[in-house]
Amino acid sequence: MPGGMGRPRMQTFRESQEFPYTRKQVFEVVADVDRYSEFVPMCANSTVFHSSWRTENVVSREPGLPHPTTIDQRSVQAELAVGYPPFRERYMSNVVLEQPWRITATAVPGGGIFTHMCTIWEFAEVVASTTGLPANPFVQQAARTKVSFSIEYAFASPLHAQAASLVFDKMARSNMAAYLARCQQLYGTPVRQ
To answer: How much is the average pLDDT of 148-160?
Structure first.
């Protein structure tokens, strides 16, 4: 590990992709933390503590919009077990849902494998015109959503960092494909126009 066996370094991964689904559909798939163990790579268990749900009315500014808007921001705690045998670790996350445009999950400090872990999902409607002219409101357009995923993480111990860095990196890189496959499973294969 670079820098010896001192404090593990921060790792970062970012990816964006267009999904042929509505923003609402993609948001609901990513927000369904209870079902992550069914489709997220190397997620062995996912539990949402429903008694911890909180809803607040907050002012938020969606990227690309000129003015902030008031939204219902929901938050909850979830426990995830990730890894592969014999390495499987649990950690708690605070999950914040700013529907319909962002979901943030941050590992709770002081327990688990991370000193820091934050994932951010952002969802933006894609309005496309093949002619360069404004979209015709009388023509049905295929729904598309730009999905942006980023993760920053640092493992709590150099041993965890060394053992898990390759696997965790692979998991982060296969995340987008897993969520797209889940959309296809739930909503069907979109018809191309």
So the answer is: 85
